[in-house]
Predict the structure.
Amino acid sequence: MVRVREDESHVDIYFRLAPDADVIYGIAIMVAEPGETVLVNIVGDISTDDISALGRRFDLDELVDIEVADN
């Protein structure tokens, strides 16, 4: 889980990982600020390569070189 709180904005990101952490089974994202809330739920197998591709497509540098840390 990732949680960011800045001023009045709140962002929560939840992942469901495969046991070997090579694949993400789903992602839920919630962004809330006064007067507006956005919920995104992505269901299905998502590889870290898929997330990196999205980062490149939408110019999100933080996602381009994403790695899943071992616990």
